[in-house]
Amino acid sequence: MQTMKTRLFQLLAIAFLTLTAASANATDPGECTLAGQVATREWKAWNDLMPPKPDYLHVIGEIEVPNPGVEPLLRPSEPQGRNPLILILDLYLCQMPGMWTQALTWKPVRFDTEIDGSGYTQVHIIGDNADFGFIDAGETQ
């Protein structure tokens, strides 16, 4: 009986330590790779020129990912193109740590950045040998 209680205590301790370690990594961005050919929809971009300053560019969209543990991420491409009015963004897919059910899921993605002047006229989203197209950037004044 004592052996059974000891074993149960050990299992509970292991479970507690595992959960504690998992929650400590909850902010870990996981492994990120440039997105290949994935489905996207509902892209929108706008320059927010409303007072007060500073002004911002906002880009939003939805990405179909292979499991709920994948987080899409937009980052400025390096180098940028020749036209300073077009912002080029790389689309990354970041797999969060843990076990995830493999089920196609739509996830929102957002990018915000401070801008100077009147902002951008277009945003170009690219990935790993993938071109997700140009988005016309409107204005909010």
Tell me what the structure shows.
- It is a single chain.
- It contains one helix and eight strands.
- With 141 residues, the protein is of the alpha+beta class.
- The chain has one domain.
- β7 and β8 (131-140) form a beta hairpin.
- The protein is elongated and about 70 Å long.
Nutshell version of this structure?
The chain has one helix at 2-24, and strands spanning 31-34, 40-48, 55-65, 70-76, 86-95, 105-115, 122-126, 131-140. Strand 2 (40-48) and strand 3 form a beta hairpin. The chain is 16% helix and 48% strand.
- Give helix % range: 10-25%
Question: So how many helices?
Answer: 1
Shape: elongated
Biggest beta sheet summary: 8 strands, mixed
Count of structural domains: 1
Mean pLDDT: 84
Distance between the ends: 74 Å
Low-confidence stretches: 15-27
